[in-house]
Amino acid sequence: MTRCKNCLIPDTVPGVTLAADGVCNFCHQEAEQREVVVATEEAARQEREADLERTLADCRGQAEYDCVVPSSGGKNSIYLLYRLKHDYGLKVLAFTVDANLPPLAWDSIRRALTKLDIDQVVYRPSHGFYQKLFRYLLQNQEARGAVHANRRT
Fold first, then answer.
1. Cβ burial, residue 92 (10 Å; 0-12/13-18/19+)
2. Which of 29, 5, 4 minimizes the C-alpha distance to 13?
3. pLDDT digits over 143-152, tens only?
């Protein structure tokens, strides 16, 4: 009895054949399917990249700013600001909603915008706006609740 070098399935299992390289037909088939998937994903990635480049080319130099980026002071928004400014050469305007952000977030925003030399607009909704917003959210909940996340499990 011999076994596949990859998965160790014995050649005595019905439907299993070992090739000259010692790998079973199931492993070879899986490898071929994986190559197809990788090629398809790479083609899709290249198309997304080309679409991004076309979009960026269309927006460059059309106005005082090339794009507006929401900025919360977190690592994701700071990284996006950096990439758009340095990697893509865009004139970026940061937009922050003052929704009771903690001092640490404001410090992070201030330091990043200073280092990156990016302008910022801050919107501070009135207290009445928040009262209306939360009243609406609480009175119009879905079965899942007012706040929910779509997570893959």
1. buried
2. 4
3. 777 666 565 5
CA distance 87 to 81: 10
Q: Which of 116, 122, 69 is nearest to 99 (CA)?
A: 122
Amino acid at 130: Y
Arithmetic mean of pLDDT over the chain: 90
Could you give the CA distance from residue 133 to residue 125 in angstroms, rounded to a whole number? 11
Beta partners for 10?
3
Of the given ranges (76-85, 123-132, 139-148), which has the lowest mean pLDDT?
A: 139-148
119-123 sheet: strands from edge to edge: 67-70, 92-97, 119-123
